[in-house]
Design brief:
The complex is a heteropentamer of chains A (396), B (203), C (102), D (345) and E (183).
Chain B (H helix, E strand, L loop, with lengths): L5 H19 L24 E5 L4 H4 L7 H5 L5 E7 L5 E11 L8 H5 L5 E3 L15 E2 L1 H4 E3 H7 L1 H41 L7
Chain C lengths: L2 H21 L3 H25 L7 H31 L13
Chain E lengths: L1 H10 L11 H16 L3 H21 L3 H26 L15 H22 L15 H9 L3 H23 L5
The chains are: A mainly alpha (396), B alpha+beta (203), C mainly alpha (102), D alpha+beta (345), E mainly alpha (183).
């Protein structure tokens, strides 16, 4: 199994050795290895995107007790190919009064952060494309690019629905970015560094034989993970927060005037962005490529990473199948009045957990420090509408 | 115990049960793959009307006597009947033309109710899509005529009831005919008897 | 790769900012000019830190970080003022905001 | 409808309807009395059997026909089944309006299919049933129908519990529905509303209890009433009414007697009711569905008027939507639960 | 890998494409800044400004101060550009195309002239002063941990002051912009 564990890296080195022997200059080899890594990472994530676009519809269908696409290819697995061909052959309309340059640039600018963000995720034991010491900061810095792209898309379509949709999307992403950043920083604080591989290393080892040291097992980690998850949903405009293009009266939000391959690029950027933020969630809270149980470490680490990413992506589809959409003012009130204070509470409870020695006593202390604000905020938030079951009069 | 968020969790449990249930329980996954699995329609489901004929020859065995009651009663007026005339021009008890425009017909089955001769019944065939709007959507007599055996095939109970009713009518008619014949024979016999011995009083 | 090139670069950037402020009459363009000038100042800080002998003395880097933070605050307040001015006199042209009574 | 917005809030809302107007009432005046029955299916196409019943009830009051007991029982069973599938479908539709990507909708339609299969086995068509006749029903229950109906009613409370677990406690749903477009009882009565919306506003008015038409007095069931009258109450009232319908069905399926299905004396084809006028009304799933018929003794109705609950409930839409957010307009329209076939006739 | 190559190329120039590689973002920076100033359409100007922010961020990374580069990207591209864009949308200056009368009748030429004069003065001092001739010392990097310790260590007071300043500024901006609701 050791070979399988190192397989991708060994393959690359072997390939480079062959090229080296063929007399390729040293400098060129370094560039080639970088290109190889980029190629494999993008290839893997495009494959995941294709798989996800059909798996999402099948999971959604199964939740609703129907089959989902099963006509194109065995079990509908050629559906992405069919969608791709459809997208390519569809005519690419550009509204006459649209701002041609910006209209064309928007999907490109949307795609750039989605792909750049994949560079810092630790896919396996020392298999990190770019070993940055402030990887988490890089993740959020580049993530800010999607807002610019959404604005460009909304503005360039010169249609009032798309501008309205774009404004809503940006307001939502900005207001959900702060809890996202703070919950990510909580994990980084405990691990002691902003670099993802150090964070994953900090989650190694097993307590009492079988309990993995993942951050999600600690109370503050669980709350921070939940907040990060909600922020991730909002960041990638999915499920309860798919306000910009979901609302029945905003047509398709900032994507109204896009068709053909540009729309496919937006679609692809959204999915790869979703996978990237799932990867970050796994790195921060689910112990990156750490195996859940001691005897399972024989399974190669990158299988654990992609397994967990697919599981988190599955839960995102599950959330999408269950929850209705939030209204705009609830969305923002929820972010500012509930998520922000909760993320500070999680941050505080992480500190208490750390200074109380990280043992079981610390576990309960951090549980208290996180639990009280949750109950106080939650009840005050839901007390506005009488959640207690309304009593109904019955007459014979 | 309703701390905030419990409602959402309950919702997730329901969708999870449905997700797993669709693999396990049979009654949850009710989709039928249409072209492969044909739906099993209940016995008296109906689509568009058709004419019933007894025996083998459609023309001869046709029950319809062109009384045009169904044409009058049909709410959207989609039935068109012209009575057949023989060479001498005398109307026959048979329709020469019997068209039903199934693009107009709303399969409401009133023609079946009002038909006194049990000659029009509702079919169950629903794959009637066609390419040209007028040609194949107006079913003429030849397309409408279907044998009684076919009728027994699609609506067994209703067909057997109809046959029983027709049988009963025929027997009653025969009995009536027999009675009339017998009465007529008795009348002729009396007249003959009267004629045999001199008619005392003629008037 | 001498320090001169970087300082020349930031000088040009500064000149662009100044030109933007002086030549345009739209308040938002003036703000863009200010952002450029602040960017030029940050570039100088980092350049001097890079070319100073010991990189462990992080004053230049820290100064740049603080200046970015302050610049962000300043941009927020500036834009709030622009919106207020626009709401009051329905235009963002700097010349229109001439009557002191407001 | 065209909605004028000021940013997010609704300033003016003007529903535009009439696109599904099929001139139902004029056609009925041109056709015989019997020919009008299949057209009533197409009024509120989600609950055809209650439409049929309302029409035949009006004709029976006009002509003074009695209806045999078995026919009354069948009518109550089919009407309550229709109410059940309408309320279940409503639960699915309102979730789809709120963007839940159709999970609740699909569960609702899975159950509704079972009810529609029962209708198809009984009347021949899933939605265009054309089953009621003057003085009773067209044909008797096929063999095994009562058992399968009993099975369905047996499994229904479990399904309703599952739906309630998914929907009633859901915080997002509470946030979206509660406090949206409340309605005071006076406003509801002055607006002429009827059905679940009226009862959600707190008015205890159910025609099944008021008129006691069709042996309803023989069954024990309760009528739920809301207090606040907002979208959440309208939603909950329909959920509770669905449970009451299950109660009625349980009692009716057990107590159905034998006997003729249609009044033998009633003539269907050349039916000529005595001259005069009559107004028959029933408690449809959407509200008070009434038929006002004037007969001049001939075999065609002189005047055929339908009281459409959806249209009358819709008139209050603008007043409910003023000042709410754009996302609420969807939910409010959904909570009124209209069917355009009935609005435009 | 990419960041390493950026830094390695800068640390020992001869090894890779030479240190001129670092001038690529500088070039982009200059072009974007020029475009931001010259362009008529305000939205295009803002987008070029965002591009210049990105180029500046990359330049900081190339110069070794990774943390500052990412902060620059996060703060300017994420927030300030959005602020400017929102301001443009809110004030909708359709009449921008109207003659862009510059201050005191000098027109755009005046502004450009002032810019050139200052540029000349700055470059004059630059090329005469000895300190600017310093060539490149060895590789340098600003590790995040060190920045953290410095911030928490001897710059504690500054950090708190900036915190207070930021809060005051943002609350003030919100109150100012919110004025409209009740008027």
């Amino acid at each position: 199994m050791e070979l399988l564990e190192r397989a991708p890296v060994e393959l690359k080195n072997a390939f480079l050795r062959v090229l080296g022997s063929l007399g390729v200059p040293e400098g060129m080899l370094a560039i080639l290895s970088a290109v190889l890594i980029i190629g494999t990472v993008i290839g893997v994530f495009l494959g995941l995107f294709a798989l996800m676009s059909v798996m999402e519809r099948k999971i959604l269908a199964r939740v609703q007790n129907r089959y989902g696409p099963n006509r194109a290819g065995p079990f509908g697995l050629f559906q992405p190919v069919a969608d791709g061909i459809k997208m390519l052959t569809k005519e690419d309309l550009v509204p006459r009064a649209a701002d041609k340059v910006v209209h064309f640039l928007a999907p490109v600018v949307m795609m750039v952060p989605a792909l750049l963000v994949l560079a810092i995720l630790p896919y396996g034991r020392d298999m990190v494309p770019v070993e940055l010491e402030s990887g988490i900061l890089f993740f959020f810095a580049v993530g800010a690019g999607t807002e610019v792209a959404i604005f460009m898309a909304g503005w360039a379509s010169n249609n009032k629905y798309s501008v309205l949709g774009a404004m809503r999307a940006i307001a939502q992403m900005i207001s959900y970015e702060i809890p996202l950043v703070i919950s990510a920083v909580t994990a980084a604080m405990i691990a002691g560094s902003l670099s993802p591989s150090v964070i994953v290393a900090a989650q190694g080892g097993f307590a009492a034989g079988f309990l993995p040291h993942w951050f999600v097992t600690t109370p503050w980690g669980f709350t921070a993970a939940l907040l990060f998850y909600i922020g991730a949903l909002a960041e990638s405009n999915r499920s309860p927060f798919d306000l910009p293009e979901g609302e029945s009266e905003l047509v398709a939000g900032h994507l109204t005037e896009y068709s053909g391959f540009k729309y496919a690029t937006f679609f692809m950027a959204e999915y790869i962005g979703m996978f990237a933020i799932c990867g970050m969630f796994v790195t921060l809270f689910l112990g990156g490529w750490q195996a859940p149980l001691p005897f399972l470490t024989v399974v190669p680490s990158w299988i654990w990473f992609f397994g967990k990413v697919c599981f988190v992506a599955f839960t995102m589809v599950w959330v999408r199948a269950t929850l209705p959409r939030l209204r705009v003012d609830h969305l923002l009130a929820f972010a500012w009045k509930f998520l922000l204070p909760m993320s500070f509470a999680a941050f505080l409870s992480a500190a208490c957990w750390h200074y109380a020695g990280r043992g079981p006593a610390a576990w309960f202390l951090s549980l208290v420090v996180v639990g009280i604000p949750y109950l106080v905020l939650g009840l005050s938030f839901t007390s506005r509408f009488s959640v207690s079951r309304r009593t109904y009069l019955f007459s014979e | 115990m309703n701390f905030p968020g419990i409602g959402l969790l309950k919702g997730f449990v329901v969708t999870a049960r449905n997700f797993l249930g669709s693999y396990v329980e049979k009654d949850r996954l009710t989709t039928r793959q249409y072209p492969e699995e044909r739906p099993k329609l209940p016995e008296n489901s109906r689509s568009f009307p058709f004419l019933v004929f007894d025996g083998e020859d459609p023309e001869a065995g046709m029950r319809c006597v062109a009384c045009k009651i169904c044409e009058k009663e049909c709410p959207p007026q989609c039935i068109y009947i012209i009575q057949d005339r023989d060479a001498a021009g005398k109307p026959l008890k048979r329709p020469r033309i019997f068209d039903i425009d199934i693009s107009v017909c709303m399969s409401c089955q009133i023609c079946v109710e009002v038909c006194p001769f049990e000659s029009i019944r509702m079919d169950t065939d629903y794959e009637l899509s066609s390419f040209d709007r007028f040609g194949s959507l107006v079913l003429d007599k030849s397309k409408l005529l279907k044998s009684n055996a076919y009728y027994h095939g699609i609506h067994p109970t209703e067909a057997s009831e109809t046959d029983a009713r027709i049988e009963a009518d025929r027997k009653k008619k025969e009995a009536a005919a027999a009675a009339k014949a017998e009465a007529a024979r008795k009348a002729t016999a009396e007249k003959a008897a009267k004629a045999a011995h001199p008619p005392e009083e003629t008037k | 790769m001498t320090l001169q090139i970087l300082l020349a670069l930031s000088a040009i950037l500064f000149a662009f900012g100044l030109a933007a402020i002086l030549s345009r009459s739209n308040a938002i363009m003036i703000l863009i000019g200010i952002e450029l000038m602040l960017g030029a100042a940050n570039l100088n800080f980092i350049a001097f830190w890079r070319f100073s002998g010991n990189p462990s003395d992080l004053t230049g880097v820290l100064f740049a970080i603080f200046s970015i933070a302050v610049a962000a605050a300043e941009a927020a307040v500036g834009l709030a003022i622009i919106i207020l001015v626009h709401r009051r006199i329905q235009s963002v042209e700097v010349d229109d905001a001439s009557n002191l009574k407001g | 409808m065209n909605v004028t917005l000021d940013g997010e809030t609704v300033v003016k809302l003007q529903p535009v309807f009439g696109y599904l107007h099929r001139n139902h009432e004029k056609i009925a005046e041109g056709n015989s009395w019997l020919a009008a029955v299949p057209y009533t299916d197409r009024l509120d196409y989600i609950c055809p059997l209650t439409n049929n019943w309302a029409y035949t009830l009006a004709v029976e009051t006009l002509a003074g026909l009695e209806v045999p007991e078995r026919a009354e029982y069948i009518r109550i069973i089919t009407a309550e089944l229709t109410r059940l599938q309408n309320h279940v479908a409503f639960m699915g539709f309102i979730l789809a309006d709120m963007g839940a990507w159709g999970s609740a909708l699909m569960y609702a339609f899975r159950e509704r299919e079972k009810i529609l299969d029962l209708f198809e086995a009984l009347t021949g068509a899933r939605m265009m049933c054309n089953y009621m006749r003057f003085g009773g029903c067209r044909c008797d229950l096929p063999s095994g129908w009562l058992e399968s109906a009993g099975q369905l009613v047996e499994g229904f409370p479990a399904f309703l519990d599952e739906m309630e677990a998914l929907l009633t406690g859901n915080e997002i749903l509470l946030a979206r529905l509660q406090g949206v477009a409340p309605l005071t009882p006076e406003r509801a009565i002055n607006g002429g509303l009827s059905g679940p919306i009226l009862r959600a506003a707190g008015v205890d008015y159910d025609i099944r209890k008021v008129d006691n038409y069709g042996l309803y007095s023989r069954f024990k069931f309760r009528v739920p009433r809301g207090r606040v009258g907002d979208c959440y109450d309208r939603f909950m009232i329909r959920v509770l009414e669905a449970r009451e319908s299950v109660e009625i069905l349980k009692q009716a399926l057990v107590g159905i007697p034998d006997g003729p299905v249609v009044n033998p004396k009633a003539k269907q084809r050349g039916f000529r009711p005595p001259a005069g006028e009559a107004y028959g009304r029933i408690e449809g799933p959407k509200g008070e569905l009434g038929f006002y018929l004037i007969s001049d003794g001939s075999d065609r109705p002189y005047r055929f008027r339908v009281r459409p609950p959806s249209l009358i409930n819709l008139t209050l839409l603008e007043e409910l939507c003023l000042g709410t957010k754009i996302a609420d307009v969807m939910v409010i329209l959904g909570s009124i639960d209209i069917v355009l076939g009935e609005v435009d006739r | 890998m990419i960041c390493e190559s950026l830094k390695t190329c800068f640390d020992d120039p001869g090894k890779f494409l030479g240190e001129w590689f670092v001038l690529l973002p500088a070039l982009v920076l200059l072009l974007a800044a020029a475009a931001a100033v010259v362009l008529r359409n305000l939205i295009h100007a803002t987008l070029c400004l965002t591009l210049s922010f990105i180029a500046l961020g990359i330049l900081f990374i190339a110069l070794g101060a990774e943390f500052v580069g990412f902060v620059q990207l996060l703060v300017y591209v994420g927030a300030v550009a959005m602020l400017i864009v929102f301001a443009i949308l809110l004030t909708r200056p359709e009449r921008l195309a109207k003659s862009d009368t510059a201050l005191s009748g000098l027109g755009p030429a005046g502004g450009a002239l002032a810019g050139f004069v200052t540029l000349g003065v700055l470059l004059g001092f630059l090329f005469t002063s000895p300190i600017a001739k310093k060539s490149l010392p060895g590789p340098a990097s600003a590790p995040v941990a060190e920045i953290g310790h410095a911030l928490m260590g001897d710059y504690k007071a500054a950090l708190i002051v900036v915190g207070v300043l930021l809060t005051a500024a943002l609350v003030g901006a919100a109150v100012l912009a919110m004025e409209d609701k009740n008027s």
